[in-house]
């Protein structure tokens, strides 16, 4: 009897606490049905609270708010209040009244508890702030590709499979003109809620372009259901009630049939095809997407293989300078493709198809030949780039060391810069390679170093001789106090670790003075010299002038 009395007392206290700031209290089951209601239901809804029992709780509210409320419940955390939110009751089951809604999920309890109250000015302001915070945003294409990769990695590690649904609104521009900005905005906001609630983690949904959406979801979510939801929403949004066409296509991830790298490439190709063709694209699975990607790039792959086999590319030289002494430290050797398209595009393409290691070996051969024959009579030092992808390839490293061991006298003249270092996953393996090369006399540098967590993790694990500060900081160093502080702290940390710091993209004398003042020793950029076919540096002619015909 005492236990029952305590339970009643606790419930009375909870209800009293709820009603201190609300007019209606509702308990919602895990299935979304109202299991208990009490309070001023008739004033708020127009019907007695007993009539609410067994109803789907979202039916009490306007269709435009239902996705938001489902999202609020889905994101609820034990013991943390959700809301307040300003929502509208359903016209038939709530008189269309505006109310303030607050929810909570209690620990060790599958039910969700909601309180509703008449709005007042303060609560409406709070609700407006909360609504802004609660509303999710669709990702853009690049962010979606990143989120999708993470979702695939997680699904693969858990032995699960997931799907991608692509949704398209044909003739989007005509639809937008018919609806006008306000109604189109409301439509896209509701689409955001629907896709967010159905995505794998509440965030893996994107707007690829106006009217084209993609969402990654569990296999138990039906693509047709998503399309039908958007179709119904289109009818609700259209003042004439006709709605507009919504098409969909499901692409199975089939993760077991692809490696992580193949999955990423297939995803990029699939989303690009969707951006171009909408749901008329012929890709059914990521496996078929990867085959299409390889087929579409067969000619380009052949071109790259030919370039590598024939060493059919040029090398150029850009000085890296000791800014305090205004003396040459060494030259970075840069590759230049003769094929149509930028060198950077070709290098990224090589990384995309897993040929970065082949290209790096080819560059190494060119650099060794240059040092042995064209630069044999001077003692200048040179840096060449190694992709972070290559440095995680054991066969590449064995091949590289074998080539270097044939000419051990070059060790004191070569520096290796590791590019894309923030993408390195096998840090212990790469550090072993770094220390092996250092043991042979080579200096090692981390390129694109910044303030991100990945850079710090790399620096902690990779015992290098230099870091090269990312150009994004250099470009803003004269105008951004924040970047000045970041660079100063990064430099001090590297100095304490006895690591040399190089600032890239130096283009003005003022940048040079600023960087020196922050403790940086070395600089590289157009101020000191442009990439040229032969190594050149003249400290008496600064800023350096671009060679004839040079274009960035």
Per-chain topology:
Elements: H1 2-19, E1 24-28, E2 34-39, H2 41-45, H3 63-74, E3 81-88, E4 98-105, E5 112-117, H4 121-134, H5 141-157, E6 162-168, H6 172-198, E7 205-209, E8 212-218, H7 223-237, E9 247-252, H8 260-277, H9 286-296, H10 298-310, E10 313-322, E11 327-337, H11 343-352, H12 356-374, E12 382-387, H13 394-405, E13 414-419, H14 427-439, E14 443-449, H15 453-461, E15 466-469, H16 471-475, H17 481-496, E16 500-503, H18 509-517, E17 522-524
Parallel strand pairs: 11-12, 12-13, 13-14, 14-15, 15-16, 16-17
Antiparallel strand pairs: 1-2, 1-5, 3-4, 4-5, 6-8, 6-9, 7-8, 10-11, 10-17
Helix pairs in contact: 3-6, 5-8, 6-7, 8-9, 12-13
Overview in brief:
This protein has 552 residues and is of the alpha/beta class. Helices cover 44% and strands 20% of the residues. It folds into three domains: 2-134, 2-Layer Sandwich (Beta-Lactamase), CATH 3.30.450.20; 141-296, Reverse transcriptase/Diguanylate cyclase domain (Alpha-Beta Plaits, 2-Layer Sandwich), CATH 3.30.70.270; 298-524, TIM Barrel (Alpha-Beta Barrel).
Describe, in plain words, how this protein is organized in 3D.
This protein is of the alpha/beta class and 552 residues long. It folds into 3 domains: 2-134, Beta-Lactamase; 141-296, Reverse transcriptase/Diguanylate cyclase domain (Alpha-Beta Plaits, 2-Layer Sandwich), CATH 3.30.70; 298-524, TIM Barrel (Alpha-Beta Barrel), CATH 3.20.20.450. It contains 18 helices and 17 strands. The chain has helices at residues 2-19, 41-45, 63-74, 121-134, 141-157, 172-198, 223-237, 260-277, 286-296, 298-310, 343-352, 356-374, 394-405, 427-439, 453-461, 471-475, 481-496, 509-517; strands spanning 24-28, 34-39, 81-88, 98-105, 112-117, 162-168, 205-209, 212-218, 247-252, 313-322, 327-337, 382-387, 414-419, 443-449, 466-469, 500-503, 522-524. Strands 10-11-12-13-14-15-16-17 form an 8-stranded mixed beta barrel, surrounded by 4 helices.
């Amino acid at each position: 009897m005492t236990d029952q009395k305590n339970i009643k007392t606790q419930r009375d206290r909870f209800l009293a606490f709820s009603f201190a700031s609300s007019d209606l209290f509702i308990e919602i089951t895990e299935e979304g049905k109202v299991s208990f209601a009490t309070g001023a239901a008739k004033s708020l809804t127009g019907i007695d609270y007993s009539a609410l029992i067994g109803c789907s709780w979202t039916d009490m509210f306007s269709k435009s708010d239902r996705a938001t409320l489902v999202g609020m419940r889905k994101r609820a955390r034990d013991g943390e209040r959700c809301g307040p939110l300003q929502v509208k009751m359903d016209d038939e089951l709530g008189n269309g009244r505006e109310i303030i809604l607050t929810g909570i999920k209690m620990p060790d309890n599958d039910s969700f508890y909601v309180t509703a109250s008449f709005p007042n000015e303060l609560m409406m302001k709070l609700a407006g702030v909360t609504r802004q915070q609660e509303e999710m945003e669709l990702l853009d294409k690049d962010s979606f590709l990143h989120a999708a990769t993470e979702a695939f990695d997680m699904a693969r590690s858990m032995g699960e499979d997931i799907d991608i649904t692509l949704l398209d609104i044909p003739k989007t521009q005509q639809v937008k003109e018919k609806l006008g900005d306000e109604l189109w905005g409301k439509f896209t906001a509701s689409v955001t809620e629907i896709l967010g609630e159905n995505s794998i983690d509440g965030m893996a949904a994107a707007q690829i372009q106006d009217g084209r959406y993609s969402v990654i979801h569990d296999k138990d979510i039906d693509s047709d259901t998503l399309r039908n939801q958007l179709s119904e929403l289109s009818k609700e949004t259209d003042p004439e009630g006709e709605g507009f066409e919504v098409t969909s296509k499901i692409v199975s991830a089939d993760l077991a049939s692809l490696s992580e790298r193949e999955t990423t490439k297939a995803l990029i190709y699939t989303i690009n095809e969707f951006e171009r063709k909408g749901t008329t694209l012929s890709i059914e699975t990521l496996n078929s997407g990867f085959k299409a990607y390889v087929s579409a790039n067969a000619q380009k792959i052949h071109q790259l293989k030919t370039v590598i086999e024939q060493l059919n590319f040029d090398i150029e030289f850009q000085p890296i300078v000791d800014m305090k002494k205004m003396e040459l430290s060494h030259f970075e050797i840069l590759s230049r493709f003769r094929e149509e398209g930028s060198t950077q595009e070709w290098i990224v393409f090589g990384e995309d198809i897993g040929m970065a290691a082949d290209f790096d070996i080819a560059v190494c051969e060119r650099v060794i030949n240059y040092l042995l024959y064209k630069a044999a009579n001077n003692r200048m030092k040179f840096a060449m780039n190694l992709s972070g992808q290559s440095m995680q390839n054991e066969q590449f490293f064995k091949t590289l060391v074998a080539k270097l061991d044939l000419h051990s006298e070059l060790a004191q003249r070569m520096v290796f810069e590791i590019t894309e270092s923030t993408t390195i996953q096998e840090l212990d393996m790469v550090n072993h390679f770094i220390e092996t090369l250092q043991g042979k006399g080579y200096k090692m540098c981390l390129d694109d170093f910044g303030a991100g967590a990945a850079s710090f993790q790399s620096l902690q694990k990779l015992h290098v001789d230099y870091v090269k500060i990312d150009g994004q900081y250099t470009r803003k160093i004269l105008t951004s106090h924040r970047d000045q502080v970041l660079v100063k702290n990064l430099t001090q940390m590297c100095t304490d670790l006895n690591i040399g710091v190089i600032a890239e993209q130096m283009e003005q004398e003022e940048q040079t003075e600023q960087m020196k003042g922050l403790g940086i020793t070395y600089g590289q950029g157009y101020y000191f010299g442009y990439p040229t076919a032969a190594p050149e540096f003249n400290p008496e002619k600064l800023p350096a002038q671009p060679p004839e015909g040079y274009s960035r």
